[in-house]
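Section 5.1 Outputs to date
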Amino acid sequence: MYHERRDALDQRWQLLADAANVELLRLPNNAAAALSLLKAIPVQGLIFSGGNTLTSLGGDAPERDETEQALLTLAMKQHMPVLGVCRGMQFIQHYFGQTLIPVTGHVSQQITISAGSEIRQVNSYHQWGSYNCPAPLIVTAKAADGVVKACRHDTLPLFGIMWHPERMSAFDPRDLQLIKGFSQK
């Protein structure tokens, strides 16, 4: 029996990128190849998308964890913007030492979050989360049950969100602005 490993990206990411007027370069889940591409092709930021579970939580894509580890390390050295979406935010939290725990009520749900004085509805598709973030990460949005839904680094252009802007039937202008902002740093 042939065991084939595949990487996949939701095709709506291209539609979201088009709506935000940014170009996407899809990187392979191979650390050496991804780093080589970044040396050859200038990029203005990275998006760590959703999908897969971290291997530390039982996932089966160690090459993705290794690639994102290498990319995040490079991005921080170069002050390159990074946006982590769902699993991508979990990776950023894990990188900085956050222990992720099972959370309930966040799979295939619409969740109300508060980000300072702003209240908004976002989609939610995750079973792992946290109720806080370790320094240097700062919590910027939470769900009513206290689950962290967004965080940022205190000095570097690293931001994480626990919703999927690409899965919205109509893209939210705030998400488009977030993506545009990260691509213009």
